Amino acid sequence: MKKTSTQASSICIIGNNAKAVAGAMALTYFGLSVTFYALSKSADEHVRRYQFDKTLCNQWQKSLDDGSLIYCTFDQAVLPSINFDTYWLFLDQMTDDVQQTVLDYLKYQSCDVCLSGIVQIGRIESIAEQLTSENVFYIPFVFLNDASIFLATIKPRLLLIGEKTEKTAKDNVVCRAFLEHTDNYCLHNLKTIEFTRSCMMNLMASKLSLINELARLADHCSVDMLEVESLLKLDNRLGVGFLKAGWGYGGSTLPKENEILKKHLLDLKLSANIVDEVVYINNDQKELIFRKLWQYFDSNIASKSIMIWGAGYKEGTGRTKGSAIHNVLPLLWGHNAITTVYDPLAKDELSEEYSSDERLKFTDFPYANLEHIDAIIIINWSEEYRPDISLINQNKTPIFDAKNLLRRVEIQQLEGYYTGIGRGIG
């Protein structure tokens, strides 16, 4: 993979989320040096939450070891004593007070300023107008698609950059580094890039909710939605992404984009009905697999032992924000079901979130004690191997597949009950 040669640079990143870490690690990977100001107490503590992303953690440690990353705990008092050529601010998880303090400091500085984050349309342009610098850029992370945020960031499949001043991005060290590592990019004014980001994310959410509505119809029509999806992807007009039925979408990006778009529409006294419906369908979809299980057991799941495979909001991640796991667990517990979760990547985060709840048990083996398990719910699957149907068949364990993980040939091999999302079965 192409790397930029090491060059002297003065880049300061201020942020506290995964995108800030990925941005910093991409720059050190490209051969640049970065000073990273975060809200965590130590570098180890900060990266610990991303242990599931091995490539990110490896680059983090390498950058600390070779000195290309300098980690600092952010304190507003240090601002007057620091001076960098380029500042990259990640606005998500940065309080309004901290944002304004940093912007007030940068207001009259002769430096370049890069901005990233999911904010109200027009906010980026407003920030740029506060700054005397003409070199202000907006880099939305619309390119995230891989489970590894680091791998997606070092080779963006689509790079959008907003410019305060036309034709200045290629002269900025951060923008130039990313432009050198993508074949698909667009430079435009700030507000157009802001609006494009909002459109992209909300269209993705809308496609997912619509495909899930169609999947419910497929169940009643005895049609396998996976086969329909493969045919839909033959039509270039529809695109190939976000055409997969399942339990819906989670994470922080799409829900936040829904919320921002709705607020913007309502502020302008415009209808937000479509956004409301997309969100409603998505929230309801997260409970659909529970209702299928409830019906299978004829409303009697008390003392039933339920194994849950996966908890992350997408494949390959240990982050569970917005995942259906947070809908399914309370529903099961509310009816006195016994739950065991298999997800090595998300175990630490779930343990922390439900630390005081003895009802949450974990296993390190997906087929552990299946002879005592009444059903398996599949929310996610991050393993490199396929599920072992022969092990499931030993006890004919019923499968409730919210991810539509199993293929048609695997379903046909099952000796027990199976239902998914729009599979026309069960």
Largest sheet: 8 strands, mixed
- Give the class-level CATH name of the largest domain: Alpha Beta
Separate helix tally: 15
- Spans of 5+ residues with little confidence (pLDDT < 50)? 1-8
Amount of helix: 25-40%
Explain what you see.
About 40% of the residues lie in helices and about 15% in strands. Helix 1 (about 20-30) packs across helix 3, helix 10 crosses helix 11 and helix 11 (about 275-295) crosses helix 12. It has an eight-stranded mixed sheet with strand order 3-2-1-4-5-6-7-8. The chain has a six-stranded parallel sheet with strand order 11-10-9-12-13-14, with helices on one face. The protein contains 15 helices and 14 strands. With about 425 residues, the chain is an alpha/beta fold. Residues about 1-10 have low confidence and may be disordered. It starts with 10 loop residues before the first strand and ends in a 7-residue tail after the last strand. It has helices spanning about 20-30, 45-50, 55-65, 95-105, 125-130, 150-155, 175-180, 190-220, 225-230, 255-265, 275-295, 325-335, 345-355, 390-395, 410-415; strands at about 10-15, 35-40, 70-75, 85-90, 110-115, 135-140, 160-165, 185-190, 305-310, 340, 360, 375-380, 400, 420. The protein folds into two domains: about 10-185, NAD(P)-binding Rossmann-like Domain (Rossmann fold, 3-Layer(aba) Sandwich); about 205-420, 3-Layer(aba) Sandwich (Rossmann fold), CATH 3.40.50.720. The longest helix is centred in the middle third of the chain and has 31 residues, at about 190-220. The chain is globular and about 70 Å long.
